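Standup notes
- DV: blocked on the single-chain target, sequence here:
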Amino acid sequence: MPIVDDAGVQLAIDRGLFKAEGLTVKTRMVKGGAEAVPALKGGALDLSFGGYTTWFAAQSQRVMDLKLVADSYRMRPGVLVLAVPKNSPVKRPKDLAGRKIAVNVKHNLASLLTRTALAPHGVKVDEEKNTVEVPYPQMEAALKNGSVDAAFMPEPFISQAAKNIGARTVVDLGKGPTATAPIAGYAATADFATKHPKTVAAFQRAVNKAQKLLADEAVRKDIIPKYTEIPAPMVAKLTYGVFPTDLDPARLKPMNDMMIEQGYLKQPVDIDSMLVGP
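- DV (later): unblocked, structure below
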């Protein structure tokens, strides 16, 4: 996706890190888990970037046996928010009760974090009635024309909407009950990981090197405009999460807990068994 979360794989391509590991990488844009999971299962993709809600749900429902290969992005304040138009009557989280909220994909990360964040404010989000699927690049327009009352947004769409239409944050998902939520990582089928361990290890090494480089603002300013529509001067102003350089099961546990609490999982997934060691 054209978001900062998956900058690691883009940087690894741009800097020749994959090539140095002997890998030839071809990318394919996917909308979300609904498209990524069958593509992995059917072999159209060897590895995929995606939210941990997607990977845990697929593993729990035995859609396929998945392996988590590399971490991609972790939460910080300001990284994911629920935004409303400038003149919206919504002033506080509880004002979102009964409102239409844009999410990129239902029954996924956006919906889960929205429900978890609003629950302490007495707001129950019915995904069928209260959420509307809108691709990230179209959320600003949806806020502007009033087809939704609020939108779940990552960067760069938060900053762009604030600049273009004066959109403001009502809920910062980097705070409160969702503050420790892991966001996304890279996964492969267990079958692929077992048959191609050297390929997976090479991918891990390249991506983790790229993740380490992304701590440098100058590196982010160089790579992000190349695969998104964000102009270079704006890149320095964006709010960034953490680009992890390893997979830590302790950091993934909060996602397990939230998915159980919100009914996305009937029982926790065995995170340790899903990890592919470096």
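- Follow-up: The mean pLDDT is 94.
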